[in-house]
Amino acid sequence: MQRIYQIDSAHQLWETIKTLLTQMFGGEQLEFFYGWLKMAYQSLTEGTFVPGQIPVFAGPRDCGKSLIQNKIITPILGGRDAKPYQYMVGATTLLAFRSVVSLN
């Protein structure tokens, strides 16, 4: 049975997100995640695109990887996504990584 949560305030929403991220990443990794997200957001809002890290989420099925990507990261970074596989395998020279968020 799926649980349905009612969130009544921004503070309550943040507590829910913080709990999810803490359970997913733990202490040290969470600091790196926050740092990466801050730099990605700052680069996007200031229009100063600089080289940076690419987060990789690995884990068992249904552990929250796509949830964090689709409901937290992508909305914060403007709803953008890309399909970089063709670029990564050398099948195209188009730089798919110009998009802020990449899936697949």
Descriptive account of the structure:
This protein is mostly helical and 104 residues long. It has a domain at 10-79. Helices cover 51% and strands 0% of the residues. It has 3 helices and no strands. It has helices spanning 10-46, 65-76, 85-88. Helix 1 (10-46) crosses helix 2 (65-76).
What is the gyration radius calculated from CA atoms? 15 Å
Q: Describe the global form.
A: globular
Summarize the main sheet. none
- Fraction of residues in helix: 40-55%
Distance between the termini: 29 Å
Q: Helical region count?
A: 3
Class per helix and strand makeup: mainly alpha
Average the pLDDT over all residues and give the rounded result: 80
Number of strands: 0
Q: Which spans of ≥5 residues are poorly predicted at pLDDT below 50?
A: none
Write the layout of secondary structure elements.
Elements: H1 10-46, H2 65-76, H3 85-88
Helix pairs in contact: 1-2
Describe the structure concisely for a colleague.
With about 100 residues, the protein is mostly helical. It contains 3 helices and no strands.
Spell out the key features of this protein.
104 residues, mainly alpha, 3 helices
